[in-house]
Design goal:
This protein has about 90 residues and is an alpha+beta fold. It has helices at about 20-25, 50-65, 70-85; strands spanning about 1-5, 10-20, 35-40, 45-50, 90. It has one domain (about 1-90).
């Protein structure tokens, strides 16, 4: 788990999980890692976990945005597009 971004409004964590033996037996060329990104909307107190094609699209968008040296507001605006899909309430343990 790697904290990638943390502002007053959002937090983004990258989660990497090792590929399971079942996945590797079906597709030996599969990546050794799988996972995705958790996006937390701090004001709405909701979170979203994205993986697969959506996670790849998110990563490409972040990389393109980083090339422009975005402000915190610009980066938060990008995250807001994904955070709108968040349904899971944030629960503190």
């Amino acid at each position: 788990m790697h904290m990638l971004y943390n502002s007053d409004s959002y937090a983004v964590v990258q989660i990497e999980l090792p590929a399971t033996e079942v996945l590797l037996s079906v597709d030996p060329a599969a990546s050794l890692k799988r996972g995705g990104y958790e996006i937390v909307d701090k004001f709405a107190r909701k979170e979203l976990f994205i993986e697969g094609a959506l996670a790849e699209s998110f990563k490409e968008g972040v990389e393109a945005l980083i090339e422009t040296s975005p402000s915190v507001e610009e980066f938060d605006a990008y995250l807001e597009r994904f955070a709108g899909m968040a349904q899971q309430p944030v629960v503190m343990h």
